[in-house]
Amino acid sequence: MTPASQAPSRRRFLQQCASAAAVTGFPTYIPASALGKDGRPAPSNRTTLALIGCGGRGTDVLKNFLQDERVQVITVCDVERESDRYNKGIIKKAGSLGREPARRLVDETYGTKGCGVHEDFREVLARADVDAVQIATPDHWHALQAVAAARAGKHIYCEKPLSLTVAQGRFMSDVVRRSGVIWQTGSQQRSDIHFRMACEYVRNGRIGRLKQIRVGLASDNRDNNGHAAKTAPAPVPEGLNYDLWLGPAPEAPFCPARLHSNWRWFYDYSGGNVTDFGAHHLDIVQWALDQNEGGPVEFFDLEAEWPAPGSLYNTCPHFSFAYRYADGTTVRVKDRQDFGAGIAFEGELGSILCSRGMLKIQPDALRKPLAEGDVRLYESKDHFRNFIDAVRDGVQPAAPIEYAHRSITIAHLANIGLRLGRRKVRWNPATEQILDDAEASAMLSRPMRGPWQLA
Questions:
Q1: How far apart are CA 307 and CA 318, in angstroms?
Q2: pTM of the prediction?
Q3: According to the CATH classification, is domain 4-137 in 3.40.50?
Q4: Cα separation, 331 vs 325, whole angstroms
C-alpha cells in the first residue's frame, strides 16, 4: 500500500487491474464504488485484501474488513469449494462455508460480481493487485503461507495460534522483520479495554507485588457436532483438495472427524486447547508483565489427562501447569480455574480478574483512574481497523508477530513438557533453547511432508 502522497493514478490502477486479470485468468470488474463514486476512498487510496482460509473464523473476520471503507476485498482462497460440515456449535453459524460462500459474501456486500476465487494460496500471492492477506487456515499452514506472503511483500493479518512449533515462530518473525511488511496477529484481546486496563493496573503496581497469576482457559469443544463418531476413513468429498489441506502435515486418510474446527485436537495440525486459548490468555500475561519479547525460565507441576487409547484426537483436554519468570513471578494455568476462563492477577494489595467482557478489581478502592505519569499501554479499540491503520501509516499494530511468537512459545513449551511427562522444563528465553533435555529440544521443530519446506 503506497502512502496517499505517492498513490498511483486512476489510469495506472485500471491498467494494473487489467494486467492482474490477464495473469490470473479471472475477469476484473470495476464497479462504480471501486472508482470512489459512493463516498468511499478511490481505489488508489484503498488497501486491497485477499482472504486465505474461508472457514468460520476466516469468514467472521472477513466481515469486519468488508465494513472498512478503506478496504477492497478482491479475492478469496480455500482448498474447499463449499461445505455445510463445519462445526456449527463452535463457529455459531448456519449454512455453508468455503471459497464459494465467501466469494458470494464479498459480492453481495459490494453489490458486484468482481471477487476472484482461488484454490491454491500461491495463486493469491502471485497477484500484483493484492496489498494484504488475511490468513485463517489451520495452524500447520501458518508458517509456509506467512513466510511466502511476507516475501511477496503482502501485509499480513494472521489468526492465532501463530505457529505449530517454536522453530516455525522464530523463522516467521525473522522473515517478517526483514521483509518490512506490517503484521497483525488475531490476538484481539489486545484491542479489548478490559484486558488493557488490567495490564495497566498491574504494570503500575495498583495491586502491589504480585503473589501469583492464575489462568483458566476456555473449555474445549472437541467432538462437537458428532464429528467424533466419524473417524472411519471415507472418500474425499467432492470439491475438497484434501492433499492440499494436509500440505506439510503427515499423510493421513481422510475422515470427517479430521477437519472443520476439530483439526485443532490433532497434534499434527495444532496443540489443542493449550495453544488455542493459551494464545489469547498467556499473551495477556506477557503484556501485563512487560515480557512482550521475553518469557519464562522454568515450567513445573505439569499434569495432563489424555484421550482414551485409540482416539483420533491426541491433544490433552484437561491439563495444568505452572511457569516462572526470572524475577520469581509464577503463573499457574489450568484448562478451567475455579473462576472459569480468564486471568486472575493476585497481589499483596488486591486482585484483578479479567475475561472477555469483564474486569473485576478488589478491593473497590483500588479502582481509580490512572494518574499523570503512569504507564499507558498501546490502545486499540478495533483490532481489524487497527491493522489497516498500521498498513496505511507504516507503523506497528497492536499485536506484532514477535509478541505473538513469544506468547505461543509458552504454550508450545508446556505441550512439550506435558507430552513427555516431564516434571520440569528449563528454558532460556534469550537463546530460545531448552536446557539439558535433548529429547524435549528435538520437539522445538517438526519435519514437513515433502515437497513442502520452510527455508
A1: 9
A2: 0.90
A3: yes
A4: 9
